[in-house]
Structure formats: structure tokens, C-alpha cells
């Protein structure tokens, strides 16, 4: 075993010995299927703390010919695969963690030379009689070895994109690094498989797009590896049953990423919440809110409008195709929002092409970021959020006149950003106005209820002693028509298992007076 050449299986052994381990070994069945084919180049990008390094360790343990890993894998899903024995511990593996190289090199501009020097030194321990003394290029050394023994290599590259995150403005280094990867991998006979993983998809740089041989699987395009992006709903349900954890609350906090046909949960947060027996912001606590604040403060047309709509529960259609896959090249608000998808701050629905805030953990991070923003528009929105307790309490006390007044104030706080011209923008303002209600309710917009779709429904959580609510919104009509619609279309049927008081809330915006009107009625179910 070596540091880079055939690193062994100790890291994977530590993973499976952890308190909580979720079996993702079936991913190996896919990598086995592309070995020694044109599809042998795979680049998987996903947010930090989503299990990228774990997968790299697993692949090293499975393919590394210097160890016997059968005892580690035989009780997991991959052992049932027809290809399991055929490729188990049959290849030389070269494992590269680019982040570690970047941390060790004295001069960042010497990174590619440093990587090659370290690996060449190790290769010479085993192939000193094969690699010529004049060889300083890693690809040349591997070709010399391949000619001698005809054995192929599997390359596992972790944190492949860290240069684009930590040397954001060093274009010369970035291009040199991409050239290094292209020359090392592209059309090389010694390559059986390359599995690269990082946060960002492969950088688009015009003439330096030489890594086009890679199959890219990202948070916007995952295809066959969707269920390995994080924890699936089925896996989280199983964990909740095993450790006696409230699945509904787990879902509210950490669910929400739509990846292919799967609803994906944040693995880091799920594991930590189970171990701590507490729901909290675990994933976002590993980085300050500044990481998000930098991007939402950018001055691109429509960006702040989109951020407020997202906080208000809307989904925003964007074009992810123009994103350059780096952290500095932005041409529009769509590019900024695309980056936030790859960083894990937004979910993305491939079918609708829309982004959204996936869960409670991320929503708290957005609010924290705008609270600390220097932008006047965000400060005004925070005024609305700070009033949300008062709005909720007055609603629960059936004080309709005060509710109308407070919604007027919320509207005034958001008019500098949001265009107020239909029921959809009205719904966004109302959702922001009731922001604190999320502590007690599951809040849904436009969900099937009775004979139609209720604008807003507030379903009390377990052990919450508050009435359910249905809110119907009208733009330049009447509050009576709103209340009538709730009753006529039987929206209260949405509360299937709920028994108790329900508040029927009608809200109308009068375009002529530029004021809101409200009526509240209490019923029992």
C-alpha cells in the first residue's frame, strides 16, 4: 500500500464502522459497467458534506489490488451483483485528493508540478527499472509502465474543483490544471476508469474545454446516479424507524433536494440530528452565513426579487445552461442562482427548470444572510419578518382589522423589490408576513384541497395547540368572495386527520385604495 498508489481500504473500514452507515455500494455496479469503455470518465459534483469523500474511499477499497476487501463488502448490496467478484481488488488505484495537495504546496502556481512530483516519487519505488530518470511528466511515466506490464489504472480524484473555489481569479493556474488533467486522462490506454468528485461541474473555458470526455453528473443533471447523491427518503425512513426519530420533522428540516426521481436528504444533517437527538442547522453551521450572503448581495437585475420570492415559498424558473461552472463568472441572476444550486443552498427541479429553497435548515440560512445584509431592500424585508409574530397572534385572535393593517405594512416593506400585481405576488407577501408561523405549522401553497387548490394552508404540527388555517387570497375583488370560495370548494377537506378549530381567512388587496381587507371566521372539524 502507498499514499497515492493503492492506498488500501482503511478509510472505508472507518466509514462502515461509524455509528450510522448507509449502504451506497450499489454505485460500484455502475462504475463496473463502464470500466474500459468510452464511458469510463465520470465527474460527479454535489454540495459539501454530501458524501463525496466517502464514495472515493469506497471505490479505492473495492478496486485496490494491494488488499483483500471481500470481508468489508460481502454483507453489502454490491456483493449480490454479477460483476462483484470479477473486479474486486483487481486494479492498481491512484488516489488524488487535490485539496490536500493544495494545502501542502508552498507556491500555488507550482500545484501541477507538485502533484506529479509526489506521485512519480511513489511510482519509482515500485517501477524504478521502468521509469526513465529523465521522466518528469506523470502521464509519460504511466505510459512507460503500461508498455512494460500492460496493466491499467483506476484514478479516484477527490475535490477535483478546489482550485476553482480557492484560486477563483487565477485563470492561468486553472487553465494549466485543466491541461494537466486532460493530458493525464484523455485517450490514454492505461486508464480503466476515472472517477472525479467535487462541488462544481467541469469548468467551461472555451479552448480549455478539453475534459469533454467526462460524463457529468451534477445537482442539475444526475441521471443514473441520482439515488447516490445523498440519502433517499426510503433510507431516511429506515433510519428514523431504527433510531426512533420523528420522520415528519426530519423531512421538514433536511428534505427537499429533487434529484432525478428521488427526494434527497442532506446526509450530514440527518446523521448529526440522529446522534444528537435534536433537529438543528448542522450542514450550514460548517460554514458562516457569509458564504451565501456574498452571492445574494450581488447587483444583478432581478436577483433580489428572486431571493425574496424564494423565501416567500415560490419556485423560480432559471436557465442553468449559461453557468460557467466557476465562482466568479456571472452574467445574470440565473448564473448566481445556478451556483447556489451546486453549493446546496437551492434545490432544482429538472422537469420544471425551477429552483426553490429545499428545507427549514436552508431557509434559516437565507434569513440569517439577509438579516446581516447591508442592502436596504433586504433590511425592509426583515422588518416584515420581525412583525410576523404579531401578525400570527392577531390572526389567531380573529382581529381582522389589525391583520389587514399589518399586511399593509408588510406590503410597504417589500414594494421596493416585489412587483405587486397579482395573487401570486400577494401570496409571497403573505407568506413572508407569516414567517414565524413555520415554528408551529407546516405551510403549503397551492395544494389540492376539496374541489380546488387552496392558496395557503397552515397545518399544526404534532403537540402544537393552535388552530389550523386556510387562507384564500384575492386581488382587487372582495374578502367575502374569498371566504365563499373556501366554503364552496370545501378547502377544509385538506385537513384529513385533523380534528379541532379551523380559521377561514379571506384576504383581498384593493387596487384602488391600495389597502388590504381581511375577514376571519372560526369553524370546527
Notes on the structure:
- By secondary structure, the protein is an alpha/beta fold.
- The protein has 3 domains: 10-217, 3-Layer(aba) Sandwich (Rossmann fold), CATH 3.40.50; 231-362, no CATH class; 375-524, Trna Endonuclease, Chain: A, domain 1 (3-Layer(aba) Sandwich).
- 41% of the residues lie in helices and 17% in strands.
- The chain is built from 22 helices and 16 strands.
- The protein has helices spanning 10-16, 27-34, 52-63, 70-73, 84-87, 98-104, 111-127, 138-149, 162-166, 171-185, 233-243, 247-254, 267-276, 290-296, 303-311, 333-343, 360-371, 376-386, 388-396, 400-414, 423-433, 479-488; strands at residues 41-45, 92-97, 153-158, 191-198, 215-217, 231-232, 257-259, 262-265, 316-317, 347-349, 354-356, 441-449, 452-460, 468-475, 501-510, 515-524.
- A hairpin with a 2-residue loop joins β7 and β8 (262-265).
- α1 packs across α3, α19 runs antiparallel to α20 and α20 (400-414) crosses α21 (423-433).
- The longest helix has 17 residues, at 111-127.
- It is elongated.
- The N and C termini lie far apart (68 Å).
Amino acid at each position: 500500500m502507498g499514499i497515492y498508489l493503492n492506498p488500501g481500504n482503511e478509510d472505508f473500514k472507518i466509514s462502515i464502522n461509524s455509528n450510522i452507515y448507509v449502504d451506497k455500494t450499489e454505485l460500484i455496479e455502475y462504475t463496473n459497467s463502464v470500466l474500459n469503455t468510452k464511458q469510463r470518465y465520470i465527474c460527479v459534483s454535489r454540495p459539501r458534506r454530501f458524501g463525496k469523500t466517502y464514495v472515493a474511499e469506497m471505490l479505492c477499497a473495492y478496486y485496490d489490488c494491494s488488499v483483500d476487501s471481500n470481508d468489508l463488502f460481502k454483507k453489502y448490496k454490491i456483493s449480490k451483483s454479477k460483476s462483484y467478484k470479477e473486479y474486486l481488488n483487481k486494479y492498481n488505484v491512484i488516489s488524488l485528493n487535490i485539496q490536500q495537495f493544495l494545502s501542502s504546496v508552498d507556491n500555488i502556481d507550482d500545484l501541477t508540478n507538485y502533484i506529479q512530483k509526489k506521485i512519480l516519487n511513489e511510482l519509482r519505488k515500485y517501477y524504478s527499472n521502468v521509469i526513465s530518470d529523465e521522466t518528469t511528466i506523470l502521464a509519460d511515466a504511466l505510459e512507460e509502465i503500461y508498455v512494460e506490464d500492460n496493466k491499467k489504472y483506476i484514478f479516484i480524484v477527490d475535490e477535483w474543483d478546489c482550485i476553482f473555489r480557492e484560486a477563483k481569479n487565477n485563470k492561468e493556474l486553472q487553465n494549466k490544471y485543466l491541461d494537466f488533467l486532460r493530458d493525464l486522462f484523455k485517450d490514454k490506454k492505461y486508464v480503466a476508469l476515472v472517477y472525479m468528485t467535487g462541488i462544481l461541474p467541469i469548468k467551461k473555458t472555451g479552448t480549455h474545454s478539453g475534459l469533454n470526455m467526462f460524463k457529468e453528473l451534477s445537482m442539475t443533471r444526475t441521471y443514473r446516479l441520482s439515488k447516490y447523491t445523498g440519502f433517499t427518503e426510503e433510507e431516511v425512513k429506515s433510519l428514523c424507524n431504527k433510531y426512533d426519530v420523528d420522520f415528519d420533522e426530519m423531512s421538514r428540516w433536511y428534505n427537499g433536494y429533487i434529484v432525478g426521481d428521488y427526494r434527497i436528504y442532506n446526509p450530514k444533517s440527518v446523521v448529526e440530528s440522529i446522534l444528537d437527538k435534536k433537529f438543528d442547522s448542522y450542514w450550514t453551521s460548517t460554514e458562516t452565513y457569509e458564504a451565501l450572503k456574498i452571492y445574494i448581495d450581488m447587483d444583478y437585475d432581478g436577483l433580489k426579487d428572486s431571493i425574496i420570492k424564494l423565501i416567500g415559498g415560490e419556485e423560480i424558473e432559471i436557465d442553468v445552461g449559461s453557468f460557467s461552472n466557476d465562482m466568479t463568472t456571472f452574467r445574470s441572476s440565473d448564473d448566481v442562482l445556478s451556483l447556489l444550486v451546486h453549493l446546496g443552498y437551492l434545490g432544482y427541479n429538472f422537469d420544471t427548470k425551477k429552483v426553490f429553497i429545499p428545507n427549514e435548515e436552508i431557509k434559516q440560512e437565507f434569513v440569517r444572510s439577509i438579516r446581516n445584509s447591508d442592502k436596504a431592500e433586504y433590511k425592509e424585508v426583515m422588518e416584515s419578518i420581525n412583525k410576523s409574530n404579531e401578525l400570527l397572534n392577531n390572526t389567531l385572535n380573529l382581529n381582522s382589522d389589525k391583520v389587514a393593517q399589518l399586511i399593509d405594512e408588510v406590503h410597504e416593506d417589500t414594494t421596493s423589490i416585489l412587483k405587486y400585481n397579482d395573487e401570486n405576488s400577494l401570496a409571497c407577501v403573505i407568506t413572508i408576513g407569516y414567517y414565524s408561523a413555520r415554528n408551529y405549522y407546516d405551510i403549503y401553497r397551492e395544494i389540492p384541497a376539496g374541489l380546488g387548490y387552496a392558496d395557503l394552508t397552515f397545518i399544526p404540527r404534532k403537540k402544537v395547540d393552535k388552530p389550523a388555517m386556510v387562507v384564500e387570497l384575492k386581488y382587487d375583488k372582495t374578502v367575502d368572495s374569498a371566504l365563499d370560495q373556501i366554503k364552496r370548494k370545501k378547502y377544509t377537506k385538506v385537513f384529513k386527520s385533523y380534528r379541532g378549530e379551523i380559521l377561514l381567512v379571506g384576504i383581498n388587496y384593493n387596487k384602488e385604495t391600495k389597502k388590504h381587507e381581511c375577514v376571519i371566521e372560526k369553524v370546527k372539524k
